[in-house]
Amino acid sequence: MVDIYLEALELGYYEVTFAFEGLVDDKVWKRPSKSLLSVGELAGHVAYWEAVKFAGEGEDLAKCRVSSPLIDSRFRYYPETLETSGSDQQRAMSAKEVCAELLRVHEEAMAHFKMLSPDLAGHPPGWQAHYTYREFLKYAAFHIAYHTGQMYTVRHLLGEETPDN
């Protein structure tokens, strides 16, 4: 059963690479309006949640086994992200670098998850008892797909030509 969830998740990460294809570097961190996130911020949001859920113990970043400029608590939730502009290190990352970093975080988080080989009905450490690894995997596949769609929308709003989506 775990293979089915992982295949769906891998498909989402395959698709997200197209959202970065041809993205102009100076638009990676550009918001199309003050109330919408940039492609880089959306990537940070996805990276944050995948790392803390699959390679951490709750949202304590000190216990996360993956390190990245994209794993930043400001990417945790939309209102928190809107209130900031990101670090200089993040904003210096090109489209190619953000995409590669998002994929690296995913690969490392999944390597940690596979190493654990948990029971899907089990409860991840640091999370409330009603959360299970199965729920985390199911939601992760939806999460990457949803935010990939948002990345395309941001690019369209910024006037970019995107790959066929």
Overall description:
With 165 residues, the chain is mostly helical. It has one domain: Up-down Bundle (Four Helix Bundle (Hemerythrin (Met), subunit A)). It contains 6 helices and no strands. The two termini are 29 Å apart.
Query: CATH superfamily, please?
Result: dinb family like domain
Mean pLDDT: 96
| Number of β-strand runs | 0
Count, helices: 6
Output the structural class: mainly alpha
Please provide the ordered H/E string of secondary-structure elements: HHHHHH
Low-confidence stretches: none
Q: What sort of overall outline do the alpha carbons produce when their principal axes are compared?
A: globular
Which fold does the CATH topology refer to?
Answer: Four Helix Bundle (Hemerythrin (Met), subunit A)
Number of domains: 1
Strand content: under 5%
Name of the top-level CATH class:
Mainly Alpha
Task: Please give the alpha-carbon distance between the first and last residues.
Answer: 29 Å
Jot down its keywords.
single chain; 165 residues; Four Helix Bundle (Hemerythrin (Met), subunit A); 6 helices
Question: Can I get a quick summary?
Answer:
The chain has 165 residues and is mainly α.
List the helices and strands and how they pair.
Blueprint: H1 2-20, H2 39-54, H3 78-82, H4 88-91, H5 95-116, H6 133-157
